[in-house]
Design goal:
Helix content is about 50%, strand content about 20%. It is of the alpha+beta class. The strands form 4 sheets. It has a 5-stranded mixed β-sheet, with helices on one face. A hairpin with a 2-residue loop joins strand 12 and strand 13. The radius of gyration is 41 Å and the shape is elongated. The model has no long low-confidence stretch (mean pLDDT about 80).
């Protein structure tokens, strides 16, 4: 390796930003104080935490500046590092490793201080360089912080999407299981009794009427299940468009009581209503579905001769509608599973009516879609009360 002459060394130093504004006299003093150091490939020059001993200037080769997890820079001939050690006594904050065979000039701290005593201009030049380095470092750190924030936000969004997708898949599997199970029973009855009617020539009119009644009841169960399933699917895919208007509590309740009249009469249920001329602001179709489902549930779980109470009250800018029964009720465990797609449950009605629990999911989604709230209180063998709170325009 060809040795560098004093003149070439001074010229080499003048091209380094740290010394570019320093006069020839100081440059010559610095050149006399430089120590030559050589390192092989991957040899450690210093490590984080080592005692600082001075400024390094790369003569030839390459040096990697890094910590345990990040590479900050790769330095070549004319680059320098370790300059902070000239103005502070802290230990090394980063590590330096020879990327190739490398030759370095080392300006030791004590030699620099000796020159600085008589040449304060050198300190001014060094301070200018350090300020620029700090500015660049702050810009880099700010950019890294912003990038990290963006990465975290994006990661959180992806995690939320993944969780939502997992929940949807779990819900879909649960619903398919429920549908397969609950369609099998009523469809089996429909097929069995229709086969008997078709194949038998000796059925009395009374028996035909009885079997037809079974077919009719089973068909309604299937229809209700499919209707709830369709409503639920639409609510999950944004397929429901709301058209909100002022609606009468009494009108919607009366319409649904008329629709469910036969079920009420069959179980000899007493309906007690305390509904004023209250008006709320919501979409008719979705809230009509809510009231119908809650009334159907109340009828299903109320014993023969039982009572269902329907009431409404206006409270500031809200309208509260309560539907309560004195039926079978629920314990705390079952109560905690309501409105959760992955924890659906259903129990037979007092006359062994079938259900899936899907109707209450539809109720919950539709009330929320109308900016309302839904709460429930229940006690086993005492009864259940649903409270719907809807806005007033």
């Amino acid at each position: 390796m060809t040795e560098i002459t004093p003149e070439l060394l001074k010229k080499f130093l003048k091209n380094i930003p740290l010394f570019e504004n320093i006069n020839d006299e100081i440059i010559e003093k610095i050149s006399h104080k430089l120590n030559i150091r050589s390192y092989g490939v991957q040899e450690i020059i210093f490590s984080t935490g080592d005692e600082a001993n001075g400024l390094f200037i790369v003569k030839n080769g390459a040096v990697r500046i890094h910590n345990e997890s990040y590479e900050f820079s790769l330095l070549g001939p004319g680059d320098y590092f370790g300059e902070y050690s000239l103005i502070e006594e802290d230990r090394r904050q980063l590590s330096a490793t020879a990327e190739t065979d490398v030759t370095l000039y080392l300006l030791k701290i004590e030699d620099f201080n000796a020159i600085l005593m008589n040449k304060p201009l050198l300190f001014k030049s060094l301070l200018k360089i350090l300020i620029n380095r700090l500015r660049d470092k702050n810009i880099l750190e700010e950019s890294m912080v912003k990038s990290n924030i963006e990465i975290k936000v994006q990661k959180k969004k992806e995690e939320e999407k993944s969780q939502k997708l997992a929940d949807l898949i779990l819900t879909k599997d649960k619903l398919l299981s429920i549908i397969a199970h609950d369609l099998k029973g009523p469809l089996g009855l429909i097929m069995s009794f229709s086969d008997i009617i078709l194949d038998s020539e000796t059925l009395t009119p009374d028996k035909q009427r009885e079997f037809t009644k079974y077919i009719n009841t089973s068909s309604k169960v299937v229809f209700q299940l499919l209707e709830n399933l369709l409503d639920w699917a639409r609510s999950q895919t944004g397929g429901i468009i709301l058209h909100s208007n002022d609606l009468s509590v009494k009108k919607i309740v009366d319409e649904n009581l008329l629709l469910l009249k036969n079920l009420i009469l069959n179980k000899n249920i007493q309906i007690v209503t305390t509904i004023n001329q209250d008006v709320f602001y919501a979409d008719y179709n979705t809230i009509n579905t809510v009231i119908r489902n809650l009334l159907s549930n109340a009828i299903k779980y109320t014993p023969n001769g039982g009572t269902i109470t329907i009431s409404s009250v206006k409270n500031e800018n809200k309208c509260n509608i309560a539907i309560a029964d004195n039926g079978v009720g629920m314990d705390d465990e079952h109560l905690s599973k309501l409105f959760k797609p992955n924890e659906q449950f259903s129990q037979p009605g007092t006359n062994d009516e079938k259900g899936t629990g899907l109707g209450l999911l539809v109720v919950y989604e539709f009330v929320k879609a109308n900016d309302g709230d839904l709460s429930v209180e229940s006690k086993l063998n005492v009864g259940t009360s649903f409270l719907i709170t809807l806005p007033i325009k």
